[in-house]
Design a protein that fits this description.
heterotrimer, A mainly alpha, B alpha/beta, C alpha/beta, A: mainly alpha, MetI-like fold, 10 helices, B: alpha/beta, Rossmann fold, eight-stranded mixed β-sheet, four-stranded antiparallel β-sheet, 30% helix, globular, binds adenosine-5'-triphosphate, binds iron/sulfur cluster, binds magnesium ion
Chain lengths: 274, 331, 260
């Protein structure tokens, strides 16, 4: 029971700490300048100087991966925070007002839910030109309905509690109750969802960059490293393997962490799964 | 079934202390007390279902066979056939995805090796016996489609499926409406009489116990503080705790007003049950007892026989302290 | 004589049930059916009935959480359903509620003092610590308890806190929906005595809802018996217990152990 943490939580936390640690480290230190091109040094094998070798333009792979981790984290964080805040607001609103407002918000959310992020990003890029901001906006956008749903479902549960009825009896309006009682009590499921969405956002950012719709050169990104390595697949497979591995570690880390957090905050789900 | 000197301990706390209980075939025993006083723990001892964290000592015998250290495998053979239990929350105890008929047929097919059709016939007969209206249709319904009282009847049918010699009912009526509860109690009494089945009826409701049982135990803080024939204990409670419980229950004598126009107050037991690890030395009830005197805080009172099978563990009743205070009976 | 404190005139409430068939109109459940009652200041009225008889629905309408489909709820002469949002908020100072579940009626993330002061803040009364402290004393708790969280209290103590919250605005009416049903007998008796104390001290009128006629009888002047949403019998407690007119009332008497 308590005291023993779930395995997925521990593994997830370790992986996340690793990725976040590396990303943070890249702010102050990388082994080399990640953008410095020395054609002389292209396709260097891994050695004491270039720990994972260099790419087709002679840039250090480790440095690139580190900076890319930071970019990826930043995009995911900003996107999830923006999308999450807007989604939570809509969810709270739907739950507080009920009736046709709730129906409307949730139907719109359903449509948003069914809308592929990639398509949205491509549309935005077509209009505004590709950039990291567009990627962030697209990822944030797909997060809105996800958070709106989770928030509404959790909030509806809280609205049925007696302490909410007591607050109504006290004379509080719907918005004061949403702020004072609903929001603090749905924090746990929303944070869990946020962690899981973080993983989704990392993946989405990689996919968008892969398509050239995300981070623009020289700013490194796992997705773009992957797409650049694609043409050299047979000559230098490691160029594709390392960023791929990074994506897997980051996504897996946040997914496991989210799952683990859910297990400890909602024991019912865990038992059902067991 | 016979329990002697059974104790259940959890790290640093005793949930049940040296309880000795014997239950003859067809007997009906009530267990009352406030929340957390060990009633369910006693019930679980009878079922061999004490949580893993609990250390059980003493002796539990079923038809002469010692079961206190028996492995789960042995207990499983006895459950359903010799001892069965009904739990408090009727919704939680039924699988929501299963038709209630299938739920009742399952143990019959597993334990008794009945075929599906025979099992269905037995289930139908059981549903009739427990008084479910339109039993054939009920077999096909899901738990959420029937009322709370009907769910409780399904659970009783389930418990009766393998003709147990002893039925442990842990607060079977607490979640129910007073009227429905009444009918369930009457049903349990009737079944116990017609099947010569022993019944252990756990409840914090004295009125329910009075209706359902002929012997009763009163528990406080893991101790059995008073026992005896139900009618006798309720008419003439000797332990201050039993007296307190009886006084707290609103009855006709509490109605109306005193001469100065104020409403009559109920008799209360001051304070609340302290947590298990924080129970007083000496008498568990000291600190809340209105008749406490010198030895109470130091010495643990031993049960004193009071005649007609009634006994209570209180220093006031012990011959050692004879003459000290008088124990008031019920008004 | 001035208007009664609370008056219900032919109040009904219907709920639409889920559709059973696509083309048929959804069935309608009448949870409260044409109930009228009058309560004067300082009086206590008990409402009894089995589960699903509409007691809580009636309480929600009295508390103006829900509007009746028919009929009117008048509090101190004013129709509650006609009040504007701001006026209703002010009026709520005068009627408060205690709920059944002592574990569910307090926000687990808020200090007790914060919860007790909630009605003061909501109705724009001054949020003085003194009022909270006084309410805590009135229900038999200590001033220091305001700093604690609900999980630090037992069920009975939590119900005391819930009562403190309900009386902090010094209301004229207290609605208690199954307020002692979840408690052990000994604690139940303590809470019932507390409610009687407060009722006499503050001149509170009270609507006390329970399925246990014995509990209702010890605290109420009058009793209203509900069944299937209808009020089937009402009268002075003594008379109703001595000579119930309905078999249903008699069955409630048996069920609560008053009659055998
Ligand atoms: N797994 C456990 N670990 C530690 N203590 C336990 C455990 N299970 C039960 N207890 C303790 O044993 C005591 C007796 O519990 P029990 O369930 O028998 O009470 P009860 O009389 O049935 O109360 P209620 O009326 O609330 O059902 C309680 O104080 C409880 O805290
Ligand atoms: N929001 C709702 N939507 C649909 N039906 C409802 C709703 N609220 C209550 N009901 C129904 O109205 C009827 C009366 O319910 P109510 O809660 O008032 O009963 P009660 O007398 O308080 O019962 P209990 O003793 O179980 O609390 C029930 O049949 C219930 O299912
Ligand atoms: S032994 Fe003392 S404290 Fe315990 S019940 Fe008897 S009089 Fe009260
Ligand atoms: Mg129990
Ligand atoms: Mg109700």
């Amino acid at each position: 029971m308590s005291g023993r943490l779930p395995v997925n939580l521990i593994i997830g936390a370790v992986l996340v700490a690793l990725v976040v640690g590396v990303a943070a480290l890249s702010l102050i230190w990388t082994p080399h300048d990640h953008a410095a091109m020395t054609i002389r040094n292209r396709f260097q094998p891994a050695d004491g100087v270039y720990w994972l070798g260099t790419d087709q333009l002679g840039r250090d792979i480790v440095s690139q991966l580190m900076v890319a981790a930071r970019n990826s984290m930043t995009v995911a964080l900003v996107a999830v925070l923006i999308g999450g805040s807007i989604g939570v607001m809509f969810g709270l609103l739907a739950s507080a007002l009920g009736g046709w407002v709730e129906d409307l918000i949730m139907r719109v959310a359903d449509i948003g839910f069914a809308f592929p992020a990639l398509l949205f990003a491509i549309m935005l890029s077509a209009v505004f030109g590709p950039s990291l901001t567009i990627a962030v906006a697209a990822i944030a956008f797909i997060n809105i309905p996800v958070f709106a749903r989770v928030t509404r479902a959790s909030a509806n549960q809280i609205w049925m509690r007696d302490y909410v009825a007591a607050a109504r009896a006290a004379g509080h309006g719907r918005f004061a109750i949403s702020r004072d009682h609903i929001l603090p009590n749905i924090a746990a499921p929303v944070i869990v969802q946020g962690t899981i969405e973080f993983a989704v956002a990392i993946l989405a950012e990689a996919a968008l960059s892969y398509l050239g719709l995300g981070a623009q050169p020289p700013s490194p990104s796992w997705g773009r490293m992957l797409s650049e390595a694609q043409t050299l697949m047979f000559m230098a497979p490691h160029l594709a393997i390392y960023p791929g591995l990074c994506i897997v570690i980051a996504v897996l880390g946040f997914s496991l962490l989210g799952d683990g957090l859910r297990d400890i905050t909602d024991p019912r789900l865990k038992r059902r799964r067991a | 079934m016979e329990l002697s000197q059974v104790s259940v301990g959890f790290a640093g706390a005793v949930a049940l202390r040296k309880a000795s209980v014997s239950i003859a075939p067809g007997a009906r025993l009530g267990i009352v007390g406030e929340s957390g006083c060990g009633k369910s723990m006693l019930g679980l001892c009878l079922m061999g279902m004490v949580p893993d964290a609990g250390q059980v000592t003493g002796s539990i015998r079923l038809n002469g066979q010692e079961l206190v250290r028996a492995p789960e495998r042995v207990w499983r053979r006895h459950r359903a056939r010799d001892v069965a239990m009904i739990f408090q929350e009727p919704m939680a105890a039924l699988n929501p995805l299963k038709r209630v008929g299938d739920t009742v047929m399952e143990p019959l097919m597993i334990h008794e090796g009945l075929s599906r059709s025979t099992a269905r016939a037995r289930a139908l007969a059981l549903f009739e016996e427990v008084g479910l209206p339109d039993p054939a249709a009920r077999l096909r319904q899901y738990p959420h489609e029937i009322s709370g009282g009907q769910r409780q009847r399904v659970l009783i049918a389930l418990a009766l499926a393998c003709n147990p010699g002893l039925l442990v009912a842990d607060e079977p009526t607490t979640a129910l409406d007073a009227n429905v509860a009444l009918r369930i109690i009457d049903l349990l009494v009737r079944l116990s009489e017609s099947r010569n089945m022993a019944l252990v009826f756990i409840s914090h409701d004295l009125a329910a116990v009075s209706r359902a049982t002929d012997q009763m135990l009163v528990m406080y803080g893991g101790d059995i503080v008073e026992r005896g024939p139900t009618a006798q204990v309720l008419a003439e409670p000797r332990h201050p705790y039993t007296q307190g419980l009886l006084g707290a229950r609103p009855g006709l004598e509490n109605r109306g007003r005193t001469p100065d126009g104020r409403r009559k107050r109920l008799v209360t037991i001051p304070g609340t049950v302290p947590p298990l690890h924080d129970l007083p030395q000496g008498c568990r009830f000291s600190g809340r007892c209105g008749q406490e005197f010198a030895p109470c805080a130091r010495q643990r009172p031993q049960p004193t026989a009071l005649g007609q099978g009634q006994e209570a563990a209180c220093h006031l009743l012990s011959p050692l302290h004879a003459g000290h205070g008088t124990c008031r009976g019920a008004a | 004589m001035s208007a009664p404190l609370l008056q219900l005139d032919g109040v009904s409430r219907r709920y639409r049930m889920p559709r059973t068939a696509l083309l048929r109109p959804p069935p309608v459940l009448t949870a409260v059916d044409d109930v009228s009652l009058t309560l004067n200041a300082g009086q206590t009225l008990g409402i009894v009935g089995e589960s699903g008889s509409g007691k809580s629905t009636l309480a929600r309408m009295i508390m103006a959480f829900e509007a009746p489909d028919e009929g009117a709820v008048r509090f101190q002469g004013a129709g509650l359903n006609r009040l504007s949002g701001a006026d209703l908020r002010l009026a709520r100072r005068r009627f408060q509620m205690v709920f059944q579940d002592p574990f569910g009626s307090l926000d687990p993330r808020r200090r007790v003092g914060w919860s007790i002061a909630e009605p003061l803040r909501a109705t724009g009364a001054e949020d003085s610590a003194a009022r909270v402290t006084q309410a805590l004393y009135q229900v038999g708790l200590r001033a220091g308890d305001a700093q604690k969280y609900p999980h630090e209290f037992s069920g009975g103590q939590r119900q005391r806190i819930a009562i403190a919250r309900a009386i902090v605005t010094r209301p004229a009416l207290l609605v208690a929906d199954e307020a002692v049903s979840a408690l052990d007998v000994s604690v139940q008796a303590q809470i019932l005595n507390l409610l009687m104390d407060l009722q006499e001290e503050m001149g509170l009128a009270m609507i006390f809802i329970s399925h246990d006629l014995a509990v209702v009888a010890c605290i109420c002047d009058r009793i209203l018996v509900m069944r299937n949403g209808k009020s089937i019998e009402t009268g002075d407690t003594g008379a109703l217990i001595a000579a119930p007119r309905h078999d249903y009332t008699r069955s409630l008497l048996v069920a609560s152990g008053i009659e055998t």
